[in-house]
Structure formats: structure tokens, C-alpha cells
Design brief:
The chain is α+β, with helices and mostly antiparallel strands. The protein has one domain: Alpha-Beta Complex (Sulfite Oxidase, Chain A, domain 2), CATH 3.90.420. Helices cover about 20% and strands about 20% of the residues. The protein has nine helices and twelve strands. The strands form two sheets. Strands 3, 4, 7, 8, 9, 11 and 12 form a seven-stranded mixed beta sheet that branches. Strands 2-1-10-5-6 form a five-stranded mixed beta sheet. It is globular and about 50 Å long. About 40% of the residues are buried. Bound molecules: ligand MTE. Ligand MTE binds near residues 87, 90 and 145.
Length: about 325
């Protein structure tokens, strides 16, 4: 057998991990966006990066360069291997490694999303049709799990607001309810009554319409891995991670506050709002500190996960200890 010995240059490029490639591209974008930002009066505007010409639409070929949203944190991002192997997705098992072991069985194309309730344009849409007209952005968000760990993830997605506005909520719409796929054949965790299946979550309409709320389709510059909620998940960065429902098949606008899986299973532990709040302990542990995955030391948890300036006004006058 002929064994071809690779040249040194070939070896080097093969040893570069996807994550390193991603981070280099990210750094390049950050620098070019900062340069363009200086021209635009110091503002970091999406779509102004040197290599970024307008915003590619959803469904665009992989490898397209997406503009970095000014809502992004500049904290160090979590390693890709951690973000894709330490997951919560109970449909695939309750251990952190279960989703990355089992979720590859889920088929994510074709994928239909049912739009129902208080909208002028209800119906069942193919994922591409739901998303195609909208511009995809990259947003680097902190995600704080209720279990007192956190990550920093570079998401690709579309503000939920853009999608909802196109569906035209009626004046009666006050909440948005989401559901995950229900298919025990593909999702072995659903064969056991761990939670009320399908997984369901909800937001008040003003929370759903807040510009920070993202419908994510990708992370680290590529499509979402199944274990992270392919092909479509919610990301609500000021709330505990369980509000960020994965693999969404149904979006319903409602008049009444919808049920949520965690609230049904343990109402004293998980409320409807679930805003990150270091002042309000979980009944079984404190929420004052968190461990960023990859770090050794814990750090203080910030009110609204550090997004208080952006979202604090949504809860003005509310007792957040009662509305946990
Ligand atoms: N969505 C569904 N359908 N099922 C789940 O079990 N877990 C939630 C949330 N979305 C969950 C879900 C919890 S508890 C967290 S912390 C986040 O997903 C974790 O997202 P990640 O695995 O991408 O970090």
C-alpha cells in the first residue's frame, strides 16, 4: 500500500480546528466592523463590516458572512466542543452528554412550522418560507442556565420580532406559545413522562417583540447541531436557559398566558417569567453565582443576565420575587 506523507503545510491546515477557523473569521469581522464603525460615528452597526455587504437572508449558502449585531457581548466565547456536548434537551435524555449522543437521529429537513391563534396569517409554513425573507445576524449572547452554569454562544438567527410582524398579530394577541416537535420515535426521552410533552414555552408579547429575542438557526457560523435545537430554536438571553425552547414546530399567539413544561412540572421552582435574578433563589439553591463552562472559578450572576439596561423597563413596577 502506498502511504502518502502529507507536506508540512497540509498538516498545519488540517490541525486547525473548526473553532479556530471560526474565531479567526470572527476576529476579522470584529476588526473590520470596528473600522467601519469609526466611519459611522463610532456606532457598531450591523452590515457595516468590511467584508459584509448587506445582510444575507436566511437559507443562504453556508459560508456566507453574517453581520455582527451590536447587541453582542465581547466576552470570550465558550469552546464549540463544550457548547455541543454539554446540553439540556430532555427529549434525548437527562444527562448532559445524552443530546450529543442521541440527537443525530432527529430529521430536521423538511421542517414545517405551524403558525396559529391570534394572527392574520395562520397556516403551516415550510421553515425556509417562514425565514427566507429575513436577514440573518450573528449575535454573541450569554446564556445562563437555571442550574447555575453559563456559556457565551455566537448564534446566527433572526429577531423573533421580524417574523412575528410578518405574521401580523391581531390586537387580541398578548402572549406567544411555542412547542417542540413531538415524536417519541425520534426522541426517545418522550417515551417517559419526565416532562409534559411536547416541550412548551411561552413569552409575553412584549418580551417576544423585544429586539434581543432571537430565533436561532445556527451557531459558530454554521447550522445548529441537532443537540442545540436544530433547525429552529428560541434564544432569550435575559431569561434562564429553559425558556430557550429547541426544535420549534408550532408558534401560537394567544390571549391567555400559555402553559410551560417546567412550570407544569414544578410550579414552585419554575415560574412563567424565569428572568435571571441573583436576588431570587431557586428553592433548592442560590442563584447568586454561576460557573462559566470552561472556567474554574465562579462569577457573580448579573440581574437579567447583564441585559438589565435593555430589558429592565419591561418589568417596571412588577414584584420580581412573586413573578419569578
Ligand atoms: N428545549 C427542549 N425542547 N427541551 C429541553 O429539554 N432544555 C432547555 C432549553 N431548551 C430544553 C430546551 C434548557 S434547561 C436549557 S439550559 C437550554 O435549552 C440549553 O441549551 P443548550 O443545550 O443549547 O446550551
Amino acid at each position: 500500500m502506498l502511504i502518502r506523507v502529507p507536506r508540512a503545510s497540509e498538516v498545519r491546515s488540517r490541525e486547525i480546528t473548526d473553532e479556530e477557523l471560526y474565531l479567526r473569521r470572527r476576529e476579522f469581522l470584529r476588526q473590520s466592523a470596528a473600522g467601519a464603525g469609526a466611519l459611522a460615528g463610532g456606532l457598531l452597526l450591523p452590515g457595516l463590516g468590511g467584508a459584509v455587504e448587506g445582510a444575507p437572508a436566511a437559507g443562504e449558502a453556508p459560508g456566507a458572512v453574517f453581520p455582527l449585531s451590536p447587541f453582542s457581548t465581547d466576552e470570550e466565547t465558550t469552546r464549540y466542543e463544550h457548547a455541543t456536548t454539554y446540553n439540556n434537551f430532555y427529549e434525548f435524555g437527562t444527562d448532559k452528554e445524552d443530546p450529543s449522543r442521541n440527537a443525530h437521529r432527529m430529521r430536521t429537513r423538511p421542517w414545517a412550522v405551524e403558525v396559529a391563534g391570534e394572527v392574520r396569517r395562520p397556516g403551516t409554513l415550510d421553515l425556509e418560507d417562514l425565514l427566507a425573507p429575513h436577514a440573518v445576524e450573528e449575535r454573541i449572547y450569554r446564556l445562563r442556565c437555571v442550574e447555575a452554569w453559563s456559556m457565551v454562544i455566537p448564534w446566527l438567527g433572526i429577531p423573533l420580532k421580524d417574523v412575528l410582524e410578518r405574521l401580523e398579530p391581531t390586537p387580541h394577541a398578548r402572549y406567544v406559545a411555542f412547542r417542540t416537535l413531538h415524536d417519541p420515535k425520534q426522541m426517545p426521552g418522550q417515551r417517559r413522562p419526565i416532562l409534559r410533552w411536547p416541550y412548551r414555552e411561552g413569552l409575553r408579547l412584549d418580551e417576544a417583540m423585544h429586539p434581543l429575542t432571537l430565533l436561532a438557526t445556527g451557531m459558530y457560523g454554521r447550522d445548529l447541531p441537532n443537540q442545540n435545537g436544530a433547525p429552529l430554536r428560541l434564544v432569550v438571553p435575559w431569561k434562564y436557559g429553559f425558556k430557550s425552547i429547541k426544535s420549534i414546530v408550532r408558534i401560537e399567539l394567544t390571549r391567555r398566558r400559555p402553559d410551560t413544561s417546567w412550570n407544569i412540572s414544578a410550579p414552585r421552582e419554575y415560574g412563567f417569567y424565569s428572568n435571571v435574578n441573583p436576588e431570587v433563589s431557586h428553592p433548592r439553591w442560590s442563584q447568586r453565582r454561576e460557573r462559566r463552562i470552561g472556567d474554574f472559578f465562579k462569577r457573580p450572576t448579573l440581574m437579567f443576565n447583564g441585559y438589565a439596561e435593555e430589558v429592565g423597563s419591561l418589568y417596571a413596577g412588577m414584584d420580581l420575587a412573586r413573578n419569578y
